[in-house]
Design goal:
Blueprint lengths: L5 H4 L2 H6 L4 E3 H6 L4 H7 L7 E4 L2 E3 L7 H12 L4 E3 H7 L13 E6 L10 E6 L6 E3 L2 E3 L2 H9 L5 H13 L5 H10 L6 H9 L3 H13 L8 E2 L3 E3 L4 E3 L3 E3 L4 E4 L9 H17 L2 E4 L4 H4 L1 H16 L6 E2 L5
Parallel strand pairs: 5-6, 13-14
Antiparallel strand pairs: 1-3, 2-3, 4-5, 7-8, 9-12, 10-11, 10-15, 12-13
Length: about 325
Amino acid sequence: MKQRGLWATHPEMLAQHSTHQAIRAVTLKSLGMNSRVIYRRCLPGGPWRRLLPGIVLLHNNDPTPDQLVHAALLYAGESAIVTGEEACLRYGLRLPEPEGPRHIHLLVPHRQKLNSSEFVTIERTRHLPAPWLRAGIPLAPPVRATTDLVRRIRDAERVSQILIEAVQRGGCAPQALAEELDRGTKRGTAIPRRLLAEWSDIRSVAEAEAHKLAKSLPRPPTHQNVALYDYEGQYAGRPDFWWDDVGLAWEIDSVEFHFRSADYARTLHRNTRYAALGITVVQTLPSRLRTEPKAVLTELGDAYRAAEVRPRPPVSLRPAG
């Protein structure tokens, strides 16, 4: 025989049956609480609060981010997976400030009939990925979480920042992001597809971020990825960024990109050529573009001023002829 009123005589049972203090109303009813009592306790000034249809928070303070996520998962059911902004944040990505209130974007199987509600966006999908568990929360893989986020954003600058962060910090290859965009709906993919088409590899992603940073300089670079030739017409190099007026090179290709010893050897050979021609070169770790942008700008400014007071190297943008 079903016992009634267990929650009243054993209040600890509420904690045992809740997740981060979020609980289904149907669970409360199974513990002997009738609908009227649940409703009254969630009224303004009451001890609890309603978060979502059928989901109750066992206190009346503002919910924490974890409580919002667990409430959303209780609402959507066992097959739901967190994706988009919330998943990216839980992978440690540093995202631009959100434009509005925090929302939880969930993926559910296409056969599941469920509507979005309150702070929860429900997306039914035929391509439900296997979840990655982080602190017990099922997350869409980083590539899927990133693409689910950017295809809902119309600001190209914000999309660029998120994609760069996903590549540099989240370990998402540009090609993998492009392929993921191809798998799903094409709605909202024009901006990220265009950006990814320009970024064929991780180097070009870092160069894109460096280009944006360089715009803050009093004297931005005059050229990008331009070939240089010495006074005899011999190829001298192709710096990522170049100040032709003073003969200053900026390279974003340090050891973070050197996965093979041959790559590192080529960089040493290039720097030897630069030194022999009197070219000043500033090398910057890609990670510093995000972590130390002011310091990078200071280094570039100092290098430019130093280059101004020494003879310009004997190099040109066209081979001698």
